[in-house]
Design goal:
Blueprint (H helix, E strand, L loop, with lengths): L23 H4 L12 H14 L5 E4 L7 E9 L5 E9 L5 E7 L14 H4 L3 E5 L39 H17 L4 E11 L1 H12 L5 E5 L6 H7 L5 H10 L4 H9 L3 H5 L6 E6 L7 H10 L5 E6 L8 H17 L2
Parallel strand pairs: 4-5, 4-6, 6-7, 7-8, 8-9
Antiparallel strand pairs: 1-2, 2-3, 3-5
Helix pairs in contact: 2-4, 4-5, 6-7
Length: about 350
């Protein structure tokens, strides 16, 4: 899968296809100057310390469903500030210890219904799907986790909620939720704690990238067309939502530009990529006008581990490689971490 990776591209002038960004050769060298706050590591260490201090034990509820060949568990874990966050655990019906895939959802989606996520478990993994607090009402089959925090003035969506300060920004809570879930997955009976790999597409890819840097438990990460990277460039150049939520906010709050991008620097995937040291498999669609290819390459090129790869889908947009890429991911995980 992803055979187009590394293939030369036609220039914009000679190609009839609507590439949304730079040529591939330029993308492979793209390294923007993304601001990194001096207290970035202290900020996240304090966030995770207080989050873990408030945690209570994981709750597991075994459910009945029409899915008879796999076991589906309704999990509730402690996220940011000890707040309850929901997840599904889907696994084969046996007692064999298995590698786990922890997956995060795209923007506006939730964990969905039992039966929405079967492929990873059918391939022999314990699959954990985190609900995204406050989301789950834009696509898919819903979410089940509220976000009980208020917000100052914000645009519709999640991108500007609490954006006046890093402490109150929405994604502080989401990233902390992700790290806490990984903590609990590592202690699950039937999970090989040394074989936990993170996955997610779009927003889920951005969350996975942050969690790969913030947790020392995962052994690999697969950010699929990852969102939430290279904010300054993305907000100014991306034609479609959700980055346009921030542009719309700044068109009203004209004096908040510096403050806003300072907040966002604590959540930029490029800054997390600089700290991540586990193997990574990225993907990008060169016709993506939701998450610009340059923003994905900004994170990929900054990624700390030399064991990294990126699948380039030349004629795809934000859908990326879809099932073709999932097959590539399964092969990548099995070869590196669990064997054939």
């Amino acid at each position: 899968m992803g055979a187009m990776a590394g293939a030369p591209l036609q220039s914009r002038e000679s190609s009839p296809m609507p590439y949304t960004d730079r040529d591939l050769d330029d993308l492979r060298e793209y390294r923007p100057s993304v601001h990194e706050p001096d207290d970035f590591d202290l900020f996240w260490a304090g966030t995770l310390r207080s989050t873990r201090a408030a945690a209570v034990p994981l709750r597991l509820d075994f459910i009945d469903s029409p899915i008879t060949e796999l076991e589906i568990i309704d999990a509730t874990f402690s996220g940011f500030d000890g707040e309850p966050v929901r997840a599904w655990i889907v696994r084969p019906r046996d007692t064999v210890p298995r590698a786990a895939i922890v997956e995060f959802q795209g923007y506006g989606g939730g964990r969905g219904l039992p039966g929405d996520h079967l492929k990873w478990a059918a391939a022999g993994f314990v699959h954990v799907i985190m609900d995204t607090r406050g989301q789950g009402s834009v696509w898919g089959t819903g979410g089940a986790t509220p976000d009980p925090h208020g917000s100052g003035p914000a645009t519709p969506g999640y991108m500007t909620r609490g954006i006046a300060h890093p402490d109150t920004y929405y994604f502080r809570r989401v990233y902390a939720d992700a790290v806490r879930l990984i903590d609990d997955v590592a202690s699950l009976e039937g999970v090989v704690s040394s074989q936990i790999v993170l996955a997610g597409a779009s927003q889920g890819g951005g969350i996975a990238l942050a969690a790969a840097a913030l947790s020392d438990i995962p052994v690999g990460v697969m950010p699929d067309v990852p969102f939430l990277c290279d904010f300054r460039n993305s907000v100014g150049r991306t034609p479609l939502e959700p980055f346009t939520e921030i542009a719309r906010y700044l068109s009203v709050h004209r004096d908040a530009v510096d403050r806003t991008f300072r907040t966002l620097s604590y959540f930029d995937g490029v800054n997390f990529a600089r700290r991540a040291r586990i193997p990574a498999l990225f993907s990008v669609g060169l016709m993506d006008d939701t998450v610009l290819p340059s923003s994905i390459f900004a994170a990929y090129n900054a990624y700390k581990s030399p064991d990294r790869d990126i699948e380039v889908y030349e004629f795809n947009g934000h859908e990326g490689g879809m099932t073709a890429h999932w097959l590539r991911q399964v092969d990548w995980v099995r070869q590196r971490f669990v064997g054939p």
